[in-house]
Amino acid sequence: MDDLAAALLRLPHAFPDDPGPAADPFTLKDRFETFIWYGSGGFDDFDHDEHMRIWTPRILRLLTSGQLRYSEAQAADRFREAGWPEWPPARRTAVEDVLRAWWTATITEHPSPVPVTDVLAVVSYLSGDVELWLSTWSATSGVAAARQLSDLLRSHVPWSRFMHDFDGEAAEDALWHWLRRHGVDLLAALPPGAAQDAALAELAERESMGPWWL
């Protein structure tokens, strides 16, 4: 069993009201999806904190498997609104374990269920720290980590999707400095040839642009 699967299986111990994986599928008429998109403001009879206690495992299972595509930022906002860093230690630690395992799984497999840019945005936003995750990436060697970096270089990290306080410009600056220090070494794991040459060229272009925060 991989670390992410194990971390997800441990969630019900910290969130005993979790209805389980059978409750994970949802439709447009489901209160869960309304909650993801609009928060408690979409209801007249809704206790945000209570439903976060029930739905946190469900959110994390769907988020990490790619089933909340294009609504990752909204899901992350629900955690910020619930003040998750101030949750009781067992609950907070359970969420932290999933975030760490999700990030490790993302940079050690390619392709991943969720693009690396979106995963980096979510884990950085929820933790308030991008450098923690970049440090893990630079310490991870292998072709998968290099291919994920190549994907990032062809895209951008969607910092601007988040509603709550987050310094996207500072995060982008940190990412740019990290690329200058570690980008070439990570891309060295790519097989020599056209793909590696293209990735190195993209890296050089990014470096010449400076932080490209949007």
Task: Describe the protein in words.
It is a single chain. The protein has helices spanning 3-14, 31-38, 48-65, 72-81, 89-107, 116-127, 131-138, 143-153, 168-187, 194-209. It is mostly helical and 214 residues long. The radius of gyration is 18 Å and the shape is elongated. The model has no long low-confidence stretch (mean pLDDT 90).
Q: What structural class do the secondary elements suggest?
A: mainly alpha
- Largest pleated sheet: none
- Quote the beta fraction: under 5%
Shape verdict: elongated
Order of secondary-structure elements: HHHHHHHHHH
Number of helices: 10
Question: Nearest-angstrom radius of gyration?
Answer: 18 Å
Question: Mean pLDDT, rounded to whole units?
Answer: 90
Unreliable runs: none
Q: Kindly report how far apart the N and C termini lie.
A: 38 Å
Number of strands: 0
Percent of residues in helices: 55-70%
Task: Summarize it.
This protein is mainly alpha-helical and 214 residues long. Helix content is 63%, strand content 0%. The chain has helices spanning 3-14, 31-38, 48-65, 72-81, 89-107, 116-127, 131-138, 143-153, 168-187, 194-209.
Give a topology summary.
Elements: H1 3-14, H2 31-38, H3 48-65, H4 72-81, H5 89-107, H6 116-127, H7 131-138, H8 143-153, H9 168-187, H10 194-209
